[in-house]
Structure formats: C-alpha cells, structure tokens
Amino acid sequence: MPDHPQHEDAELHEGERLQKILAALGWGSRRVCEDLIIEERVTVNNEIAILGRRVDPLVDLICVDGAPVGARPDFVYYLLNKPQGVICSASDPQGRETVIDLVPSEPRVFSVGRLDFDTEGLLLLTNDGVLTQFLTHPSQGVEKEYLVMLYGSPRLSDKALRKLRIGVELEDGVTAPAKVSQRSDNTVTVVIHEGRNRQVRRMFEAIGEEVERLVRVRIGPLMDSKLKPGVWRDLTLAERKSLSEFMSKSSRR
Ligand code: URA
Prior knowledge:
alpha+beta; Pseudouridine synthase; nine-stranded mixed beta sheet; Structural Genomics Hypothetical 15.5 Kd Protein In mrcA-pckA Intergenic Region, Chain A; 2 domains; single chain; binds uracil
C-alpha cells in the first residue's frame, strides 16, 4: 500500500490542484482545504474528491458539503436593488420593464423568487439552478427581511404586533411566526421565511393597515444598504461562500 493512497490516480487529471482552487475561493489556507478533502467533504462532479485531485474550474462542478462553491465561472450571481415599477419575470406582454432588462443579457439568468411590481429592494438573479431551488424552497426557511412603511403614522398596538408575530389568518392559511418590530412612527421591520404571494402586504391588510412602501433589505446573509435602486453588482466571494455555508448548514439540519 502506498503511504498516501489518496494521491493515486489523482495526478492523472489535468488542471489545478483542488486544494489550491478551494483556497483561492476563500475556504481557508491550503492546509485547511486539504483537510476538507481528507474529511471527504468535497466532491468534484458529484464524486468524493481525493487529495491531489486536479480540477479544471471551467468545467468541473466543485461542492463542499454538497453545496456548489461557485468555482464555475459560467455561474453568475447578481444582487440587484429592484426599483418600484419593474416586474420580476423574463418578459411582459404589456412591454413593461423587467428585472432581466436591468442586468447583463448573457448568460441568461432568472430571479430567485419574486418581488411585487411595487416592491423595492434586494433581489438575487443567477443561472445557478441548485442555489435557486434551495433559496426558494419553503422547507429551507431562508429569512427575508422587509422594511414596511405604512400610510399615516400609526404605531402598531401590542395586540397587532403580537398577531403579526404569532401568525395571521390569510386566505391561504395562517402565516408562520415572524419577527416584527416597530422601528419608528410609520416603519415596521418584518422578517419572514415563507415566500407566499404578496405575503407582507396581506399580513398588514389582515390587521387593517395599508402598506405605502415595501423594501426588502435582506435575503438570508445578503444585505447591502448602499446599492442604489436599479443598480446590480456581483456577489462577492465572501457572500458566495456565506451562501454555500448557509446551504450546507441547512442540509445538515
Ligand atoms: N411580500 C409582499 O407583499 N410583496 C413582496 O414583493 C414581497 C413580500
């Protein structure tokens, strides 16, 4: 038996060493990345990787703990600050502007979930189907945080706050518990992890309040208060890593 059977065959592949690619993607030092491979937490094209494996990041799909690490440069991840009056679909028969018109046309991307025509704020667009499926699946409970500005300047009663927190009866069932806090006279912060149609607006209608402005300020670990409406940017390496970590933690739950 060779001392390091993991190295056998691994050298036959062309490309960069896997631990070097992982380290470049921000997973830690080469040593830490070697340990990830030895602990069998890394797969390449759905097979457990062995130490010394070489990969071509242009073609190989690399995952840590089952979550793609975004090494494939054909995957793009845009964080857009969606303005009011833009729709979240690929095209609109009425010719209105869509979120797809606001980001590069190639490669083709789709939005991860939706925001209403009048809702503003953070929206993720990507061509990574695994991430989309994960972030939109109700069982994953990814938190979405909204700033809700109400008509008039009502301070919600304790009873109304409690109702929103515990769950309100909507026509498609009672909402799951939410984190709700009054921030100022007409502004309330709401954190939900469901993704029902017009959910936040309907929750407030159910307690007799009308939403004047609705802004999404966080999706899971993603936040950016400096991104201007209508502007997009690529996710940073750290953000992609935090999404991967978030996915792998959830898949171990
Ligand atoms: N809740 C809503 O009511 N609208 C959105 O766009 C998102 C959440």
